[in-house]
Amino acid sequence: MTPADSVRPPIAEKIPTEMNLHGIKRIDNYHWLRDDARKNRKVLEHLADENRYTKAQFSALEGFKQTLFDELIGRLDKDESSVPYLWHSHWYSRRYKPGFEYPLVIRQSEPNGVETLLLDVNLRAEGHDFYGLGGVSVSPDESIIAFGEDTLSRRIYRVYFKDIASGKLLEDELSGTDGHVVWANDSKHLFYIAKDPKTLLGFQVFRHQLGTPQSEDILVFEEKDDSFYISLGKSLDESRITLFNESTTTSEVSVLDADMPLGEFKPLLAREEGHEYSVAKLGSTYYILTNWKAVNFRLMKVGETEFGDKQMWQEVIAGSEQDRIEDFLLLEKFLIVQTREHGVSHLRVFPLAYDDESDICRDGNVEGEPFEIPFHDPAYVVGLDINARQGSDKLRLYYSSPTTPESIYEYDLTNLPTRTLLKQEKVLGGFESEAYQAERIFITARDNTRVPVTLVYRKDTFEKDGTNPLYQYGYGAYGHTIEPDFDSSVLSLLDRGVVYAIAHVRGGEMLGRPWYDDGRMLNKQHSFDDFIDVTRGLIEQGYGDKKRIVAAGGSAGGLLMGGVINQAPELYFAVAAHVPFVDIVTTMLDESIPLTTNEYDEWGNPNEKPYFDYMLSYSPYDQIKHQAYPHLLVTTGLHDSQVQYFEPAKWVAKLREYKTDNNQLLFHIDMEAGHGGKSGRYRRYQDTAQEYAFLLGLLGLNEVEAR
């Protein structure tokens, strides 16, 4: 008898908990698995049993998992470093020492000059099973570095301060924060966001003066509406500290003169339900990215003193029904605008009216024809890299595609299209981009909506005849777009003949804001339909073997996995669901659970019957049926701050009760980690190796060596 045969799957005790709402009674037999303190002996023993069972089932694959882990980390550049950028008088960057998990934060007085070590994160992480580095911020006079640390994986940080010249920590410490600080220009005052320890929402902004205890910090803002997130930033010209308040559908920007830290934050424009906007400042002019009368946003501008009157706003770039304006960068002489058109990103450079004699921007008006920066891959991701100085004539971009490792380019805006490749991610192990092929196709869903799909495969193992195993990934929530970028870990799939597909389902924002709106609230079923219909379409077109389709998703993508295996389990041979959000109705009814109320505009408020009924209709936990399910690997972290561990724990327990098949159902709980899994540059690949070993082992590819 093998170790796998000798260990039986854990069967959770059934202790009924009755829930009644809107005339509907629900019985949850596994509610007892929730333990907010994470100290209940019975619960912890059950989780330990799950881990023992998973370990036993993996025993035959341990060697393969190690092989995969060695492959994954073997592709990493041992001396990886970021491209230094100039801020004030120094060039800042990060780099890794070979074999170490965490970076060194360094600076130089000139490129390639002598390094000054600002922070050795490896030393800070010593003795901690988990370590998360928060924001790193240097004071305007460049004398002090502030940094946040999370050693529990709950995304609540303690901020420390270090004198750069002496290398000594200051006595100042800030606990219970979101991990970031924004400095006033005097380098003595700074602002930070405090988190509610129960809901984990950042809800208060405090001002701290160096040299004083946190108990004396001044509360300068409190968000009363718990459907809003708050964040702090600073304008590129460093003249304003910005406070950004954002819900799913509404935003508000307030500013404070960075030279007057004892002043008050004042809204540029008070929040209006359904109005989303963000800003950038140039002189006394603000540029505004806004959805006011523009579903896919438009770009406008206005003088600072007139900001509060929208009738004074002047249109710079009109909105479009099809194309979404996603981002922009405002330099002294150039406006750079990023759009997404038919799912593909575009970057255009607009010259601004500028008086060279007085060396100032005249009025922020666009002057002359824009220049589009060309890219040629069928699917790719491009975006604005660190551009730290508004007066620069250089533009830094990052670029990647499924076959192109991440590249940092610098463009000379005075001499377009001149560009310099500053750095491209090194992929060790003989990687050759030409060996792989990427495609962007569209699959027609059941309601005749065309869903974009990104595909990548190895040319010499692919035949469009329905013989290749296919791995399909999806997310589909919060308007978050899963970009078609390069991921060196995927090579371990491609090199074994697997076709990799990303289904850009509704709920993301690949095709603009309407694409998001059509996959949230009372339209959420579209996300599941899209994913299922993409699978069917890829099978029909010969991209995948109908008997060897595997799928994966995490968090809200785990909800997607839970939905599709309830609704179309026969399509999938195996599924990996990471930190899955699967008990949506119960969670969204409990305002004590972190982030619940903030997400009513994403899922709906089940206290209202129409939303309750709709959410219940697709809730993965509530809709488990007596039917055959695919092979399943479910993972979570005991300290997850986003999706509490007990959601997947209950889901797995109920699946064991209901499923009619003999397929594997494995549940792994990382007793130290949170929502993001393991910390560290190398250790995080242990989770990927586990997933790939599970899926490839089931596909019979564990004996196939990567090419």
Describe this protein with a few key phrases.
707 residues; Rossmann fold; 17% helix; globular
Task: Please sum up the structure shown.
The chain has 707 residues and is of the alpha+beta class.
What does this structure look like?
With about 700 residues, the protein is α+β, with helices and mostly antiparallel strands. Among the domains are: about 275-425, Prolyl oligopeptidase, N-terminal domain (Methylamine Dehydrogenase, Chain H, 7 Propeller); about 430-700, Rossmann fold, CATH 3.40.50.1820. The chain has 13 helices and 38 strands. The strands form 8 sheets. The chain has an 8-stranded mixed β-sheet, with helices on both faces. Helix 3 (about 60-75) packs across helix 13 (about 685-700) and helix 7 crosses helix 8 (about 555-565).
* Distance, first to last CA: 34 Å
Number of strands: 38
What integer value in Å does the Rg equal? 26 Å
Strand content: 25-35%
* Secondary-structure class: alpha+beta
* SS element count, helices: 13
Detail the topology: elements first, then pairings.
Elements: H1 3-6, E1 17-21, E2 24-28, H2 41-57, H3 62-74, E3 85-87, E4 90-95, E5 104-108, E6 115-120, H4 121-125, E7 132-138, E8 144-150, E9 157-163, E10 169-183, E11 189-195, E12 202-209, E13 218-222, E14 229-234, E15 240-246, E16 251-257, E17 266-269, E18 277-282, E19 285-290, E20 298-303, E21 314-317, E22 324-330, E23 334-341, E24 344-355, E25 360-366, E26 371-373, E27 381-384, E28 394-401, E29 404-412, E30 419-424, E31 436-444, E32 450-458, E33 470-473, H5 491-494, E34 499-503, H6 513-517, H7 525-540, E35 549-554, H8 556-567, E36 574-578, H9 584-588, H10 600-603, H11 609-618, E37 631-637, H12 646-658, E38 665-670, H13 685-698
Parallel strand pairs: 33-34, 33-35, 35-36, 36-37, 37-38
Antiparallel strand pairs: 1-2, 3-4, 4-5, 5-6, 7-8, 8-9, 9-10, 10-11, 11-12, 12-13, 14-15, 15-16, 16-17, 18-19, 19-20, 20-21, 22-23, 23-24, 24-25, 24-26, 27-28, 28-29, 29-30, 31-32, 32-34
